[in-house]
Design goal:
Layout: E1 13-17, E2 23-30, E3 33-37, H1 44-53, E4 59-63, E5 75-77, E6 109-112, E7 117-120, E8 129-134, E9 137-141, H2 148-157, E10 179-181, E11 186-193, E12 196-203, E13 206-209, H3 217-227, E14 232-236, E15 247-248, E16 251-253, E17 267-270, E18 282-285, E19 289-293, E20 300-306, E21 309-312, H4 320-331, E22 337-344, E23 347-354, E24 357-360, H5 368-377, E25 398-399, E26 427-431, E27 437-444, E28 447-451, H6 458-467, E29 473-477, E30 489-491, E31 523-526
Parallel strand pairs: 3-5, 9-10, 13-15, 24-25, 28-30
Antiparallel strand pairs: 1-2, 2-3, 2-6, 4-6, 7-8, 8-9, 11-12, 12-13, 12-18, 14-18, 16-17, 19-20, 20-21, 22-23, 23-24, 26-27, 27-28, 27-31, 29-31
Pfam family, one: SRCR
Keywords: Disulfide bond, Glycoprotein, Membrane, Repeat, Signal, Transmembrane, Transmembrane helix
Subcellular location: Membrane
Length: about 525
């Protein structure tokens, strides 16, 4: 007899030892016992999943070294490698339960933003005195420069519709605590669509253009989050959306990329660049609309992305004007993209659109991190397997000649770095008595490095032997059997099935994520036949 307990609202992660519910040491519940998470490989992508699972807003910091004190009990998880789209921490890849190679001195922690804005002093959740959370304390906003544009940001953040009025002089009631903000900074995109155009910032009741020399990808991510425009696709300079006729913003914005609004980003003193409207920065964001169930990409049921979830549009008052907006919004994506052919919507042979031509991708130039980005771009969840050797039949297109080098956290494949031409051989055996025996080394970003022997086994050895055309695996050796290597230790904690065409296609802790020294360099002996 099997009895299962289904708990819809059970919490399997918690934050302990922090100053609020949304900050602290990360603990997960497994087999009825709470345990901690090792900080090896712990980053903001992993923290984002925890914050989402706890309904705690955006990640502010991902902390290690038992920042919130050492926990007790088991260290349940280590080498966590979230994509960022998972609904729970347990859905992320890791070394496996209770396989962390870690002690409590390395307990991971998280600080989430929580709800950083609220309305108080009235029973209506969508009207009241504005308060913001900063450094763990709630405070008010000064009404100098406060107007409907500022009010619109608050209404959008609280999912309260459109602003009706922007009140001043404490008309709703006096707040308490510090006055955190003055001259609130609002933003807009001009000369394009709602989610593309020239960036302008409102300060002291005047709109200002921003110089392209003081604006980067991290700043763009914050702008897109504040405008609810998805992920940034391109940061364009040289007045790509025409020259503005406003003043120029004189400070350098220095966002980390995880802030919820631009006004939370640090700014420096006036920047040293001599900027004019020839340098106005523009932004293009990922499309937030799609067509589903039609006979082509350009026909189907309209769905929009809001707060990470796709939903439909009611047809009340729906007409050709609205349809034209959808068609225009989707047209931007005609010149590049990815698709899977020969399988289903979320499985198949990968092809990349470049210069209006679809191209197949070589399996030697593609790994697990690249696959995570493709799955995210296609809204297909987490990647399960990277298959080589034309598993979905041979394509009849040109071959993609560059090596894709994603970190795994990009929103689209076109945002990943790429080398000019891929090197087909990415693994070698060093210091053995034949070409088919030795210390395993892999080539990543132009540099050879070793492999840690944690979880190194015969399926992993079989992949190396096959990749080198060295026959069957005879032994998977440990402890720097073929001598210690030098340079980086690129890979660790393998979950090879044994059928992968390259070692890069095996699951692992991620590039350069390990708790290893060269004393543990892995090696292989192949049959050579």
């Amino acid at each position: 007899v099997l009895l299962c307990h289904l708990c819809r609202y059970c919490v399997n992660v918690r934050l302990v030892g922090g100053h609020s519910r949304c900050a602290g040491r990360v603990e997960v519940l497994h087999r009825g016992q709470w345990g901690t998470v090792c900080d090896f490989g712990w980053d903001l992508v992993d923290a984002a999943v925890v914050c989402r699972e706890l309904d705690c807003g955006e990640p502010v910091d991902a902390l290690g070294n038992a920042h919130f004190g050492q926990g007790s009990g088991p260290v349940w998880m280590g080498f966590v490698r979230c994509v960022g789209s998972e609904s729970t921490l347990k859905d992320c890849g890791s070394a496996g339960w209770d396989r962390s190679f870690c002690d409590h001195a390395k307990d991971a922690g998280v600080i989430c933003s929580g709800n950083i804005c609220t309305l108080v002093a009235t029973p209506n959740p969508c009207s009241g005195t504005v308060e913001v959370l900063h450094r763990g304390q709630w405070g008010t906003v000064c009404d100098v420069g406060w107007d409907l544009a500022d009010a619109a940001v608050v209404c959008r953040e609280l999912d309260c519709g459109e602003p009706v009025d922007a009140l001043s002089d404490a008309q709703v009631g006096l707040g308490s605590g510090p006055i955190w903000m003055n001259n609130a900074m609002c933003i807009r995109l001009v000369g394009g669509s709602r989610c593309s155009g020239r960036l302008e910032i409102l300060r002291d009741q005047s709109w200002m253009s921003v110089c392209d020399a003081v604006f980067d990808q991290q700043d763009a991510e914050v702008v897109c989050r504040e405008l609810d425009c998805g992920a940034p696709v391109q940061v364009l300079g040289a007045a790509a959306f025409d020259k503005g006729d406003t003043q120029m913003w004189t400070q350098e914005i220095q966002c980390r990329g995880n802030e919820s609004q631009i006004h939370l980003c640090p700014t420096s003193l006036p920047h040293k660049y001599n900027c004019s409207h020839d340098n106005d920065v523009g932004l293009v964001y990922r499309v937030n609309v799609r067509l589903v169930g039609g006979h082509s990409r350009c026909a189907g049921r309209v769905e929009v992305l809001h707060r990470g979830q796709w939903g439909t549009v009611c047809d009340a008052a729906w007409d050709m004007t609205e349809a034209a907006v959808v068609c225009r919004e989707l047209d931007f994506y005609d010149n590049y993209g990815v698709r899977l052919v020969g399988g289903s919507r979320c499985s198949g042979r990968l092809e990349i659109l470049h210069d209006q031509t679809w191209m197949s991708v070589c399996d030697a130039a593609f790994d697990q991190q690249d696959a995570e980005v493709v799955c995210r771009e296609l809204d297909c969840g987490a990647s399960v397997q990277v298959l080589g050797a034309a598993a979905f039949d041979k394509g009849d297109t040109q071959m993609w000649t560059q090596e894709i080098q994603c970190r795994g956290n990009e929103s689209q494949i076109r945002m990943c770095p790429a080398s000019q031409k891929h090197n087909v051989m990415h693994v070698r055996l060093v210091n053995g008595n034949s070409p088919c025996a030795g210390r395993v080394e892999v080539l990543h970003r132009g540099q050879w490095g070793t492999v840690c022997d944690y979880s190194w086994d015969m399926p992993a050895a079989a992949v190396v032997c096959r990749e080198l055309d060295c026959g069957e695996p005879v032994d998977a050796v440990y402890g720097a059997h073929f001598g210690q290597g030098s340079g980086p230790i690129w890979m660790s904690v393998f979950t090879c099935l044994g059928t992968e065409s390259t070692l890069k296609n095996c699951g692992s802790a991620g590039w350069n994520k390990h708790a290893c020294t060269h004393n543990y360099d892995a090696g292989v002996i192949c049959s050579g036949e």
